[in-house]
Amino acid sequence: MPSYCLAFSFWGKLVMVIFLKTVLITGATGGIGSELCKVFAQKQYNLLLVGRNEAKLASLKDELQSKCARQIDFLLADLSLPDAGKVIYEETIKRNLKVDVLCNVAGLGVYGDFLNRNLIDHKELLAVNLQAVLELCHYFGNDMRKRKSGKIINIASISAFFPGPYMATYYASKAYILSFSVALAKELKPYGVDVSVVCPGVIPTEFYPKASADLKHSYLLKRMPLENPKTLAKIIYKKAMKNKLIIKNGIINRLLIFLSIFLPLRVKAFIVSWVQRKK
Ligand SMILES: NC(=O)c1ccc[n+]([C@@H]2O[C@H](COP(=O)([O-])OP(=O)(O)OC[C@H]3O[C@@H](n4cnc5c(N)ncnc54)[C@H](OP(=O)(O)O)[C@@H]3O)[C@@H](O)[C@H]2O)c1
């Protein structure tokens, strides 16, 4: 039976609900998140797309549904709001959805001198990059631990290994995600729940213009090798399915991460301030 017939028959829907696993992806409307959605959809997963832009979510849902016979839902949520994780979790319970894979992709950067940017921007960054991740891992992690199965994929960054002058809050938030994910992986392993943390380099997405229009003039974007979000999404899927703990890609990124182990924090801060300064 062709997959589109299966999708629209009663039995097809039943099969999708009972047998296919469900992945929840935050940041589904972003450069990396939307590519990850496409990979999971191709790999026989039902999807729950989480984002705050209804039009973008609806169009991604239509695009994915036109290509494959999956159950694809979306959920509107602003992750900067208090208790966003709780609201999302409760909505999945209401919809009777069991989340097998949680992908925390949503995130934002704030570029510029720490003191010159509004405190409110830094706080929003912390709410989305940290608080929402923490809450979602807590709610869905508890269910996964009870079921003794599940997978959590958190997106950190190569910046997790460096202090980051001119993006100090962002770099610190990613260091938190790296450390938190590695620790959580250790705690959840005995319960059959795997945690992976991804440390990409520079991917040309909306992330940079959103962080600040000035960022495109920095040496960072001019010097670092650019990665393709499509390729990155495939790598994330492949390595996460093999339960790889820290997912890195690209020779330069691996080399920088390796070198970062030997450099004192002060030296790393100096290098990043040079690379990230405005041209
Ligand atoms: N691009 C890079 O070079 C790079 C490198 C390393 C790590 N990362 C990490 O990769 C992840 C994805 O980044 P990206 O490059 O794909 O950036 P992006 O295209 O800007 O996507 C970011 C996603 O996060 C969502 N988001 C931001 N604030 C939100 C909020 N308050 N509530 C709900 N959703 C919110 C955005 O939603 P909207 O569409 O509504 O804005 C978007 O879907 C981030 O965690 C980022 O830190 C990126």
Task: Kindly describe this structure.
The protein is 53% helix and 13% strand. The protein is an alpha/beta fold and 279 residues long. The chain has one domain (3-276): 3-Layer(aba) Sandwich (Rossmann fold). The protein has a 7-stranded parallel beta sheet with strand order 3-2-1-4-5-6-7, sandwiched between helices. Helix 3 (31-42) packs across helix 10 (229-241). The chain is globular and about 60 Å long. Residues 1-7 have low confidence and may be disordered. The structure holds NADP nicotinamide-adenine-dinucleotide phosphate. Residues 27, 29-33, 51-53, 78-80, 105-108, 128, 155, 157, 200, 202-203, 205-207, 210 line the site of NADP nicotinamide-adenine-dinucleotide phosphate.
CATH topology: Rossmann fold
Low-confidence stretches: 1-7
Helical fraction equals 40-55%
How many structurally independent domains?
A: 1
State the fourth-level CATH superfamily: NAD(P)-binding Rossmann-like Domain
Look at the structure and give the mean pLDDT: 91
Strand content: 5-15%
Q: What gyration radius follows from the Cα positions, in whole Å?
A: 19 Å
Number of helices: 12
Task: List strands and helices in order, with pairings.
Elements: H1 3-8, H2 10-19, E1 21-26, H3 31-42, E2 45-51, H4 54-67, E3 72-76, H5 84-94, E4 101-104, H6 119-147, E5 150-155, H7 168-188, E6 193-198, H8 207-211, H9 219-223, H10 229-241, E7 246-247, H11 251-260, H12 265-276
Parallel strand pairs: 1-2, 1-4, 2-3, 4-5, 5-6, 6-7
Helix pairs in contact: 3-10, 5-6, 6-7
Bound molecules: NADP nicotinamide-adenine-dinucleotide phosphate.
